[in-house]
Amino acid sequence: MGRYHRHGVQSTAAIAGHPLHHMLIVFPVAFLIGALGTDIAFLAIQDPFWAQASYWLLIAGIVTALVAAVPGMIDFVTIDRVRNVWVSWAHMVANLVVVALALINVGVRLDDPAAGVQGWGIWLSGIQTALLLFSGWLGGELAYRYGIGAIQDCSPKAEQFHVEVDRPDVAEQYGRRSGSGHL
Fold first, then answer.
1. At a CB cut-off of 8 Å and minimum separation 6, what does 103 contact?
2. Quick one: pLDDT at residue 72?
């Protein structure tokens, strides 16, 4: 079970306190959004290389999304606070839809990647990119608003980096005197 802290919940799928899901999601996001970029490149210059690149980026995106889903699902199943927040359900469903769309997108391109891009491929890539942006926003909400897998480290080792800098040009806006605390 994830340990609850004053500022959040520790991820159960973590290495040395670093959540695996947060580390792994960058790969499918990059691959799947990259597929839209290579689709656009193909439509712009009609070089079949870009259609083939989209095809392989979609496959890489699907594989890495499934790998990233494992620690995400471990956190979802083992931390009740995650299951009790609607944002986590929406995040999970959106990601499952993205993977389903990517699978369909690969199927559309299976025989001829270039023809697939010109047909439904570009639209599927655009929709999955929009859904990824929405899902990423939801994931950010889970991490930074709800503190799922993103706890504040209050140890003396980390405390040295939690320094408040009191700038004279900004202090007045916040009702503070420069360098000496509150008014």
1. 62
2. 94
